[in-house]
Design brief:
Layout: H1 13-16, H2 32-43, E1 54-60, H3 64-72, H4 75-81, E2 86-93, H5 105-122, E3 126-130, H6 135-142, E4 148-157, H7 168-175
Antiparallel strand pairs: 1-2, 2-4, 3-4
Helix pairs in contact: 2-5, 3-6
The structure holds flavin mononucleotide (FMN).
């Protein structure tokens, strides 16, 4: 079944066909080469003043880092994310070198993660970002210093069949129609909420 985005104009297949599954193949191993490509895609993201506020903690299934990142997830995510080949925690440096707040830290780090997810799709893999984790648990496990804020955990791996998910709610979500807010409620011109009218 296609999970491709329904768009009013053509979109690059890497973007149209990216989606966030929960059913990952528990036996699939990501190669070092694949992982290196994903991390390079993140590293080369744009950032305000090239500050690159992002840091990433990377665990492979079976290692201690993976276990600790998995342990920091909320229960709903723990149920399915443990089959992913890799779990990555995205962390951002909230302050500039002079100690003042970096207003674009989260924006920049999200951009780096976006690049990673698209590169994952280009490698034939899938990525699923999660905000459902306990930051304090992650901070404690990895001694994340003051001033660095965990923003998300990303599960990466190879797609598996939806019916391998452990409960009906998850199986239904895996196949439900993907949707987005309409163009006219998203893109404005002239004044706030006046539709741009393209698409
Ligand atoms: C910052 C962020 C946090 C998210 N948190 C969770 C989460 O905790 N658990 C989950 O199952 N999905 C999570 N998602 C996945 C979204 O639900 C998903 O991206 C959205 O429904 C759109 O689906 P798509 O990525 O397949 O297009 C998160 C996505 C983002 C970008």
């Amino acid at each position: 079944m296609s999970r491709s985005a329904v768009t009013s104009a053509p979109v690059h297949p890497l973007l149209a066909e990216r989606w966030s599954p929960r059913s990952f193949d528990p036996s699939y191993e990501i190669t070092d080469g694949q992982l290196a490509s994903l991390l390079e895609a993140a590293r080369w993201a744009a950032s305000a003043r090239n500050i690159q506020p992002w840091r990433f903690i990377v665990g492979r299934r079976g290692d201690e880092t993976y276990k600790a990142v998995h342990n920091a997830l909320i229960g709903f995510n723990q149920v399915w994310a443990g089959n992913a080949s890799v779990l990555i925690a995205a962390v951002t440096a909230e302050r500039l070198e002079d100690g003042s707040p970096n207003a674009t830290a989260a924006y920049d780090t999200g951009l780096a993660v976006a690049q990673l997810t698209v590169q994952a799709h280009a490698e034939g893999l899938h990525a699923h970002q999660m905000g459902g984790f306990v930051p304090e648990r992650l901070a404690a496990s990895f001694d994340i210093p003051e001033g660095f804020r965990p923003l998300a955990v990303i599960a990466l791996g190879a797609l598996a069949e939806a019916d391998r998910l452990p409960d009906e709610t998850l199986r239904a979500r895996e196949t439900e129609t993907r949707a987005r807010r309409p163009l006219d409620e998203t893109f404005f011109a002239g004044s706030w909420q006046t539709p741009l009218g393209i698409g």
